[in-house]
Design a protein that fits this description.
The structure holds 2 protein chains of 2 kinds. Chain A is an all-alpha fold. Chain A is 67% helix and 1% strand. Chain A is globular, with a radius of gyration of 17 Å. By secondary structure, chain B is mainly beta. In chain B, the strands form 8 sheets. Chain B has a 4-stranded antiparallel beta sheet with strand order 5-32-31-30. In chain B, strands 6-7-8-9 form a 4-stranded antiparallel beta sheet, with no helix packed on it. A 4-stranded antiparallel beta sheet of chain B has the order 10-11-12-13, with no helix packed on it. Chain B is globular. The C terminus of chain B is likely disordered. Classes of the chains: A mainly alpha, B mainly beta. Strand 1 of chain A pairs antiparallel with strand 1 of chain B.
């Protein structure tokens, strides 16, 4: 399956005049995928993606004037996913006090990789998700998450943090 | 055959994209967004609007599976689809009172706490803009950072060598902020005005004293600053600085030595309040409180007792007359405090600007390190944030009338407490920082070291009194 993920690179001028529907149709799936990867929950990821789209629609008069509306929507969904994660942390702490099991939905069965990614530091997991879902260049990722290109390179290249969280090389099929 | 991380990543990326494609109905989603009246009416709406629209889809697992501990009452909210189910668990060891039960209404709101990263770990001071849209703070070194709290503004960190500040003060219109100068070192006293776009202007002032405290004037065009005298007998001078040109004029000489935390504190659209130490009129008072009018005239409104422990004005209501929330730290080991207090009991007091009357709320039950507090604009609630001895950042909210009723004794049941983070403490200079906890705009905001935590103001206003009917939603 192939998706058009050119929202970040090279379409700046065109996007100024693309209407919301076109953006929505083109970007919804990769944005849902990004949210699912970052939250580890399909339902939550889909809701966050819609929430981000809803905010874009709400503020379309200004968002459409941005150089990269798709980047803005991704930034919103990344922020929302981070909020969800932290809120989940709070819930898990409360549940631990109650000595009850975590009631969150299970992640996707083939999501061992993403599970490891979610154990990375916040900025790094965002960079890795953008890298492998959107196949973006480091420069575009760095621009999206507002870090220098060098920092983006450091975050996307597997290193000690990956090893610590189970992202080392392993046997493939 | 070993797959590289890159291969694993690409494979996982394709898998989650396919999963997402199977998960969404693009046409249906588009129709919901573009045809839902609630969505269309969202422009300018606050938290209610956002929640209303979210209902147009389905309840998220996030909103529907919250579990919060509030004192002895544990409330677990569960549900699926559009349904919500509220279950109450009452520990055997205590009887849940009516008032505690009624606090169920607070729980869903606390579950809606929003967290925003700061780009760099915050070093105090830090301050939220009056409209609740930004947090400005000191980053590493002498950098100044601004982080958007709405997700739509541009965040940045800039090195501003001249910006050596003790605290921050925002302009009333939230477009710029300023800070005091730590020392002159033989150079002209300076202050720096920073715009939200990251540009800044350093102003050389016509004063030869360091700026001890600074506040943006209520007109947004001037900076009010206190400058201490060279000796204890010199009066403290209040100056007004043009925020664009640096032109400085003396507004008034205080009638006594400025206290350690003698911030000129804006209290309404035309007046500020300031504290001085003992004066000839009140030789036994710990501090004397004056209200300063825009024309430079001032009026004594209260003399505060309490030995040498200074108060810090930290919040004000929008009521007429305004009520000022004051904090006072009582150290665990010793009767006085120095420049920064990290281990202390916390006294919370309310000063009625109209009558000068001081109401003392219950002190903290144990040492809290560090801490801060805020008062709601309507004067009905107090929020307090603290870091526990084991490093947990907690936020407590209580009705002031319940605290007063408690008769000076700390009552756990009066507080709805939420743990915000395990390892994200408040800064250690909280006592000299005005607003690590802020009721700004429509939100209650807590600034910790790494993150900013926000809660809708309207959620807090739902805390019921004892006579309210409990509504568990």
């Amino acid at each position: 399956m192939c998706f058009d993920v050119d929202v970040v690179d090279g379409v700046a001028d065109d996007e100024r005049h693309v209407d919301f529907e076109a953006i929505y149709r083109r970007e919804l799936v990769p944005i849902v995928a990004l949210a699912v990867a970052l939250t580890g929950n399909r339902e939550t990821g889909a809701d966050l993606a819609h929430e981000a789209m809803l905010r874009a629609f709400r503020d379309w008069a200004s968002v459409s004037q941005l150089e990269r509306p798709g980047g803005w929507i991704r930034r919103v969904v990344i922020n929302l996913a981070h909020d969800v994660r932290r809120r989940g942390d709070r819930e898990r702490r409360a549940l631990r006090r109650l000595d009850t099991s975590d009631a969150s939905h299970p992640a996707s069965p083939n999501d061992e990789f993403w599970s490891a990614v979610r154990n990375l530091p916040e900025r790094q997991r965002t960079v890795v998700a953008l890298r492998y879902i959107e196949d973006l260049a480091v420069a575009d990722i760095a621009s999206l998450v507002e870090v220098s290109e060098g920092t983006g390179e450091d975050l996307v290249v597997p290193g000690p943090p990956h090893a610590r969280t189970g992202l080392g090389s392993r046997g493939g099929p | 055959m070993m797959a590289t991380i890159d291969e694993l990543g690409r494979r996982a990326g394709r898998a989650v994209l396919e999963e997402a494609a199977a998960l969404v109905d693009v046409d249906d989603g588009l129709d919901r967004i573009t045809s839902t009246p609630a969505a269309v009416s969202l422009s300018g709406a606050g938290g209610n609007g956002r929640r209303g629209v979210r209902r147009s889809f389905r309840w998220t697992a996030v909103a529907a599976s919250a579990a919060i501990v509030t004192g002895v009452l544990v409330v677990v909210i569960g549900g699926s689809g559009r349904e919500r189910v509220v279950t109450e668990e009452r520990p055997d060891r205590s009887t849940v009172s009516e008032s505690t039960e009624s606090r169920v209404r607070l729980v869903p709101s606390l579950a809606d706490i929003v967290t925003v990263d700061m780009d760099e770990p915050s070093r105090m001071p830090a301050a939220v803009s009056p409209n609740g849209a930004w947090v400005a703070y000191q980053g590493p070194g002498r950098s100044v950072c601004l982080t958007s709290l709405t997700g739509t503004g541009t965040s940045w960190c800039e090195d501003i060598p001249e910006f050596g500040f003790r605290q921050l003060s925002w302009s009333p219109d939230s477009t710029r902020f300023t800070g005091g100068d730590e020392a002159t070192n033989g150079l002209p006293t300076r202050t720096t005005v920073v715009e939200v776009d990251g540009s800044w202007t350093t102003l050389d002032l016509d004063v030869d004293r360091p700026l001890l405290e600074v506040s943006f004037g209520l007109d947004g065009d001037s900076i009010v600053a206190a400058t201490p005298g060279a000796t204890n007998t010199d009066p403290t001078r209040l100056v007004v600085v043009d925020a664009d040109t640096g032109a400085t004029r003396v507004l008034v000489d205080y009638p006594g030595q400025l206290g350690s935390f003698g911030t000129p504190f804006p209290i309404d659209a035309a007046r500020s309040m300031f504290f001085v130490g003992a004066t000839a009129d009140d030789p036994d008072a710990a501090q004397t409180v004056y209200v300063l009018d825009a024309d430079g005239s001032f009026e004594r409104i209260a003399a505060l007792d309490g030995g040498t422990l200074p108060r810090t004005p930290i919040g004000v209501t929008s009521t007429v007359p305004p009520v000022v929330l004051m904090l006072r730290a009582r150290p665990v080991d010793g009767p006085t405090i120095g420049g920064g207090v990290e281990v202390a009991f916390l006294d919370v007091e309310l000063l009625d600007v109209g009558t000068g009357e001081v109401t003392r709320l219950p002190s903290s039950p144990s040492r809290i390190t560090p801490f801060s507090a805020a008062i709601s604009p309507d004067g009905k609630h107090v929020a307090m944030a603290w870091t526990t001895d084991d490093g947990v950042l907690e936020l407590g909210v209580a009705r002031i009338d319940e605290l007063v009723t408690a008769g000076g004794v700390w009552d756990d049941d009066a507080w709805a407490v939420e743990a915000l983070a395990d390892d994200d403490p408040l800064g250690s200079y909280v006592i000299s920082e005005r607003r690590p906890v802020c009721w700004c705009g429509e939100r209650l905001v807590v600034i910790a070291r790494d993150d900013v935590y926000m809660l809708d103001l309207e959620a807090i206003s739902e805390i019921p009194s004892n006579e309210d009917e409990p509504v568990p939603d």
